[in-house]
Amino acid sequence: MMEESESVEGAETCRLEVLQTFPSGEKRWTDAGPIDLAKSTSEASAVGKAAKGGAATPTASVSPPLGCALKKPGKKYLPRRAKLLLAPCAKTKSDRRRRYLYRHSPGGIDTNLLVLLHGAGDSHVPFDGLAKKMKIPQAAALSVSASSCGSGGSSGGFVTLPFGLGYTWFEEMDYEKTGKTLEDEHPRRVGSLGRAVDRLVEALASLMHSSSDNDKCRGSNVEMRGTKSKIDDSGWIPERIFLLGYGAGACLAMETCARLAADSQQPLGGAVCVSGGSICDSALSRSSSHKSFAERATPILMMAGSRDRAFPPATADRLTDMYNQLARGASESSVNGGEELPPAQVFVKEGKEGGMIQSEEETKALMTFFAEMMTRRMPCMEAWTKVKATT
Questions:
Q1: Which among 93, 123, 254, 382 could bridge 278 via Cys, Cβ 3.0 to 4.6 Å?
Q2: Name one GO cellular component term (predicted).
């Protein structure tokens, strides 16, 4: 039990109570005294080494019977399988940076992973800068370019725009002939979006825990369910992976969440869709036949400007209602322990026309959502593990 922290001559300290069992069988909480966190961290590491060597050495500032050692939380790095999938032809670090950018959390504790998806014709670089500015605690960030997952050369990726305008996730216009915008339900647009979802699902699977870091991705049918097999520490579990998309990237994010729920895949931790969402009502409608939607629905925050013509609040409300109805409808016909998953939410910024997050109100709504959905670790507490003392 950790009591309130106190400051002693500028050092970060706290008081620790431990549950001890006495020879009589009585169990009682006893005060272990103040702990200098900075000092105890380094000294506890030495205790762990000594314990492994056979010496029963007490932990500094903690009563000897505890025999505690402090495990230092490490950074997480992208699994090798994810690097190969995102940049299959990369030979140098510079080549990989053109396909994706990865940064650790501000404190170096990468409990969660935020995957950022840019808009049509945009680049992943500004979104890496956004992640750097947000400084979300315990959240690493992976900014992905639509040029990633390419099969060769400088081309490939999801969809290449004409005239050197960059890349996008799926076909929104007839880039080959007319140059006009494709209707939402146009076969080319729906098919292209479906293939983009396949690729993103595959990429997300490569970011997750695996029984072996050398496992190969087996395509879009890779299951994202947890397994009981021994896992490595080079990935994240699904509920600690989050999506943040803008425009076309927001559409891809929402479609992916719907696909995972419809296919009974493990849900993600959450998704934020800025100025964009699912373009095909049929995609959400098809999910209505799947009773597992409620159990697998990923929490979503949709953000729109009150004067946004490309993605007006009415569209955000309609898509949110459809998503929530699927979750509620499925939960009524399935056993879910009486608990209903958080429904999708909408945040509308008054007076805003469109664009990425800009105002303080939008930032607050975004950070509040992540604070509610993301997992937080307490290294000062969880790291103290018992070490068997040997004589």
A1: 254
A2: cytoplasm
